[in-house]
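Entry: Abasic site processing protein
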Amino acid sequence: MCGRFTMNASELEILQSFDLEGELISFEPRYNIAPGQKVLAIIHDGEKKRAGFLRWGLVPFWAKDPKIGYKMINARSESAHEKPSFKGLMASKRCLIVADSFYEWQKNEQGKQPKRIALTDRKLFAFAGLWDKWDNEGERLFTCTILTKQANDFMRPIHDRMPVILPKEKEDQWIEPMKRKPTEVHEFLTNLSIENLEAYNVSNYVNSAKNEGVQCIEPLIDE
């Protein structure tokens, strides 16, 4: 799964990296983004790309209770095209979720060691995401989920799942404003290449979603 990530970049870096216009309202760098919090996402509205904030944890439009979002922070890319909660979104509500690294916890003899994982060749990247709008008696939520896949050779010793990271040249294609068959989207995800990753240990400070700041990403120095 993908349950925590970072977005440690300047507004200008994000605008330039994703070829966006305007400004990012209420933007600030983040070092410990957790489910239920706002994430920076990019969609295409048919005329241009737009960036804004979605709540992490998908609440489908048909849900009776928005708390379901805490159970839907991730969607398996291998089966999302078949699931009622996701297949309609695969067809027409795809988004980019901006990040510069993610965390995973590797089991060891002492328990679990948090690791920060990033791409080796570029700083900013995008997870493949799905989004939806939930509207109930005047309460409106815009939420999202991150697609995941089986771990590659690098990630497998750390965890058996990993987020789907879109190659740079595939980002705009992912959010093209056209309706697709969910099976076509599944094939698109299946054929994505995986870029090189790097990882290092960080402090247990990151374990609590309440903790924020550069301390979350500082390399752990063995004593």
